[in-house]
Design a protein that fits this description.
Elements: H1 3-10, H2 18-24, E1 36-39, H3 49-64, E2 68-71, H4 85-94, E3 102-106, E4 109-111, H5 123-135, E5 139-142, H6 146-158, H7 177-185, E6 191-194, E7 203-208, E8 212-217, E9 224-226, H8 234-244, E10 249-253, H9 260-270, E11 276-280, E12 283-286, E13 292-294, H10 306-311, H11 315-326, H12 330-336, E14 357-358, H13 361-373, H14 377-391, H15 393-401, H16 403-410, H17 429-433, H18 438-443, H19 456-470, H20 477-490, H21 497-502, H22 511-523, H23 531-537, H24 540-547
Parallel strand pairs: 1-2, 2-3, 10-11, 12-14
Antiparallel strand pairs: 3-4, 5-6, 6-9, 7-8, 12-13
């Protein structure tokens, strides 16, 4: 029996050839330097921060070279797939404005001419390539039962041999085609295994764009390519897909490096050009004991990109942070190009750390704080409104009811050379400005932060005198401050800070103490944005009502 006859028995329903698919998915008409790459997640849960980092790198390098970035869903491990997993991935990435040129857009929708972009919809394609391998004696059916494979492993462990299905341990490799066909016709289940021609004593060189030249032993394991249910494993499916989708660069985690010799062998078996490999370092975290470990889905809430949506960290701020851990020269570039955006930065694989990146949540918040400080108030409002609609509907009602008022609050000390940096995320805004809304002020538990002046009678006396005699809504800032000093002096406090510092015993206190009393009565806080601006925004009725609550 010939290999062609065996292939026909194994895959009787396959009618297309590899050449047919080569015509269906021709080489892309792009500049030779254009990068075609993909994000290829499994729908097994939320998008991990490490995945987001590699996704952003892929997106960036494709865009800057005029290439293509596409989304491929690798759902061949059905046991690990979760309900609405594809929608979850797409929604997670939408918040970061990562738009794919091609790929899956839902469970049953996609864009692009190189699909299907969901692997379980490509079974016929994989079987065509599998049939070709069998025809050319590069693969064979394996009938070994789990207990037989376990016996092989036990034997290898006992004699301290390498673990795997190879050489003399690969029992089904040496069956005749006649026996194979007979067993298939008898209904025996089988997997498809690679008939490896590699030599473990020889080396294969991987020219990794991040790590340079890396050597591994050639693959000599007869790996499973297609499981008994007809579904391919990752090793086989990604080779077929990356070839047909004309991927030029494969970006993936460093954990896949040991598998690369197998993948290269498969590309070479088919006579395909091997893409560029870029194995990205792990995203690490410093543990409580000072040790480094991989950022964990289980241990670290910030590992899930949904964390950033819930906190309301602007997506652009997250992307700025990701670029700082992706390229070592980005921070320096950003400091020297404050008038430019991340789109103007040229990503370089050579500037990536091969040893992994340390994830620093505090640094991310600091970047976010600086980013938000330089946003226009209307843009902060738009982001806040979008966040609050999902995560704080009550606050959303308030800020939409008082839109112009809220924008004015957010604009306090913003349009100046050194803007205030009060917010590091949208969820931090309400705890910072709640006192500007009567609806919140009435029901929030108030902890008045009076410091030097704490006697309530003195506080009421100060506040009432100021409001009744010295406060005028239309005063400019200089007039306002002069009136505040006049009020201070009438009360026996020092209006001149220099005079107070020279002779503090001559006064009850200073203008700073008086202004703090007014500030705390209005806001409960001893530290706030500019008091003058707060007074300008609060109505006379609001201002007078606040003293009644002391």
């Amino acid at each position: 029996m010939t290999n062609k006859e065996l292939a026909e028995v194994m895959y009787p329903n396959v009618t297309k050839t590899i050449e047919d698919y080569e015509k269906m998915y021709p080489k892309r008409d792009l500049d030779p330097k254009a990068v075609v790459t993909r994000f290829a997640p499994s729908p097994t849960g939320f998008v991990h921060m490490g995945s987001l980092c590699s996704t952003f790198v892929g997106y960036k390098v494709a865009k800057q070279t005029g290439g293509v970035y596409y989304l491929r869903i690798e759902d061949t491990d059905q046991k690990r797939s979760v309900e609405n997993g594809i929608a979850g991935i797409i929604n997670d990435l939408k918040q970061f404005n990562i738009e794919f040129d091609e790929g899956a857009t839902g469970e049953d929708s996609e864009v692009g001419n190189y699909g299907p972009y969901i692997q379980t919809k490509r079974i016929e394609i994989y079987q065509t390539f599998a049939k070709w391998l069998v025809e050319h004696d590069y693969a064979y059916p394996c009938f070994c039962k789990p207990e037989e494979l376990e016996a092989i492993r036990t034997h290898q462990e006992h004699y301290k041999e390498r673990i795997g299905y190879y050489g003399r341990h690969a029992k089904c490799r040496y069956l005749s085609n006649e026996e194979r066909i007979e067993r298939i016709k008898n209904g025996e289940p089988f997997v498809l295994r690679l008939k490896s021609t590699g030599d473990f004593e020889k080396k294969v060189v991987i020219n990794d764009l991040v790590r340079g030249k890396v050597e591994y032993p050639e693959n000599d394991i007869d790996h499973v390519l297609i499981k008994s249910d007809g579904i391919p494993v990752y090793h086989f499916a990604h080779v077929v897909d990356d070839h047909l989708m004309r991927t030029t660069h494969i970006l993936r985690g460093e954990e896949w490096m040991p598998s690369t010799p197998l993948h290269i062998e498969l590309f070479q078996k088919f006579g395909f050009e091997v893409p560029n490999y870029c194995h990205l370092g792990l995203v690490m975290k410093i543990d409580e004991d000072g040790s480094r470990r991989k950022l964990s889905k289980r241990k670290d809430p910030e590992a899930a990109v949904s964390y950033y949506a819930e906190k309301g960290i602007p997506s652009e701020a997250v992307k700025l942070y990701l670029m700082t851990i992706a390229n070592s020269n980005f921070e320096g570039w950003m400091d020297q190009n404050k008038d430019k955006t991340i789109d103007d930065f040229t990503f370089d694989f050579k500037k990536m750390s091969a040893s992994g990146s340390l994830f620093d949540i505090e640094k991310l918040y600091n970047i976010s704080k600086n980013y938000m400080a330089n946003m226009k108030a209307v843009d902060v409002y738009a982001g806040l409104k979008n966040w609050a609609e999902t995560y704080d509907p009550e606050f959303w009602q308030l800020i939409t009811k008082y839109q112009d008022y809220t924008i004015a609050i957010l604009n306090i000390e913003r349009e100046q050379k050194k803007p205030r940096k009060d917010f590091d995320c949208y969820s931090s805004i309400k705890p910072t400005i709640w006192y500007m809304y009567d609806e919140l002020f009435a029901k929030m538990e108030k902890n008045y932060e009076f410091q030097k002046i704490t006697d309530k009678e003195e506080i009421r006396k100060i506040f009432n005198l100021y409001i009744e005699k010295y406060y005028h809504k239309d005063d400019d800032k200089e007039t306002w401050f002069n009136n505040l000093k006049a009020c201070t002096e009438e009360l026996g406090y020092a209006g001149d800070m220099k005079a107070y510092k020279e002779n503090p015993d001559n006064y009850k206190g200073s203008v700073a103490d008086i202004s703090q009393v007014i500030r705390v009565v209005l806001t409960t806080k001893c530290t706030t944005p500019d008091l003058y601006e707060i007074l300008k925004l609060l109505s006379d009725e609001q201002i007078k009502a606040r003293i009644e609550l002391i």
